[in-house]
């Protein structure tokens, strides 16, 4: 999560960066165990992490996705936010 955050931090909005960086930090966004350590900005951004959570783990399917059908959609989405070459 941290590595991907650093790769994409110059391209995505802050809300998306919080979702990437903290989606696996369950004590922070599910159990709210660290609320006392969060400032107002963190609290606001963690609402995005919490909103993303149901789509993160619970959307797995037993059926394989149709890659050919999905590819154009995701290529367009990637092109909207990222340059042709990322500097890793």
Structure explained in plain terms:
The chain has 88 residues and is mainly α. The protein contains five helices and no strands. α1 (2-8) packs antiparallel against α2 (14-22) and α2 (14-22) packs across α4 (40-57). The longest helix has 18 residues, at 40-57.
Task: Using brief descriptors, characterize the structure shown.
5 helices; mainly alpha; 88 residues
Topology:
Blueprint: H1 2-8, H2 14-22, H3 26-29, H4 40-57, H5 67-81
Helix pairs in contact: 1-2, 2-4
Count of helical stretches: 5
Average pLDDT confidence is 91
Level of helix content?
55-70%
Secondary structural class:
mainly alpha
Summarize the model shown.
This protein has 88 residues and is mainly alpha-helical. The chain contains five helices and no strands.
């Amino acid at each position: 999560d941290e590595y991907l955050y650093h790769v994409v931090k110059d391209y995505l909005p802050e809300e998306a960066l919080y979702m990437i960086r903290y989606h696996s930090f369950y004590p922070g966004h599910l159990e709210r165990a660290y609320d006392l350590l969060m400032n107002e900005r963190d609290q606001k951004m963690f609402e995005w992490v919490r909103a993303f959570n149901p789509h993160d783990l619970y959307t797995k399917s037993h059926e394989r996705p149709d890659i050919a059908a999905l590819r154009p959609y995701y290529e367009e989405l990637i092109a909207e936010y990222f340059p042709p070459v990322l500097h890793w």
